[in-house]
Here is the input.
Amino acid sequence: MRILVVEDEETIADIIATKLRHEKYEVDISYNGEDGLYNANSNIYDLIILDIMLPKINGLDILKEIKENDINAKVIMLTAKSELDDKLKGFGAGADDYVTKPFHIEELIARVNVQLRNKGKSKIKDTLEYSDLSLNIRTSTLTCKNTNESINIPYREFLLLEYLMNNKKQIISKEQIYDKVWGIDTDYESNNLEAYLSFLRKKIKIIGSKVNIKAVRNLGYKMED
Ligand code: CA
Here is the structure.
């Protein structure tokens, strides 16, 4: 699960990010509204923690725009006590929850967990399906339904496969994959995407599936059967 923290008070943002990483979430931080909106629009986040008072673009405007863009992240707003009106506007604009500043970090984490648990439930299934493949997202096990053979998928390859299977109808660009699997600030050169893809292709083949991860020249990757 990947979370974006949009908060201009760097100390607060860093405390939130550190705590979330301890909870095994992947976290990116934006320290102003413009950067926050840009990152949120990448649609790679499961949840966004969004401060209201931000330089450049405020949190409510970010919320409105990402809702218009059908970004499906859960949103928790951070509001000062004096911003009650803003809080109500936030709910009107589609925020899922809010936390009033000053807050205990544990309270925020608890609310994040609640939102992401609900999000998990709303998916209902524990598995992602594509063609003859079934990926169990709790156990990271990939099964070929035709041969009934299974194989365990290591963490990065799992994130990669999960992303491809969630977007099976689209061509996914390298940049999108790096953002989702390695994080927004990653150095593209330092990660060998091709190697991970070839590990995955081998595993898919080993269990007898007909699925291929196809490279689409100059555009990216797509699953194919
Ligand atoms: Ca602020």
